[in-house]
Amino acid sequence: MICKVRSLLGLNCYTLVFVNHLSPLFKYFFDVWVRILIVDDDPDITFTFKKGLEAENEKNSSNKVFFKVNSYNDPLLALSEFKPDLYDLILIDINMPQIDGIELSSKILELDANVKICLVTAGEANIEALRELYPTRSIGCFVKKPVTIENLVRRVKAELQ
Question: What homologous superfamily is domain 2-160 in, according to CATH?
Answer without folding.
Answer: Response regulator (3.40.50.2300)
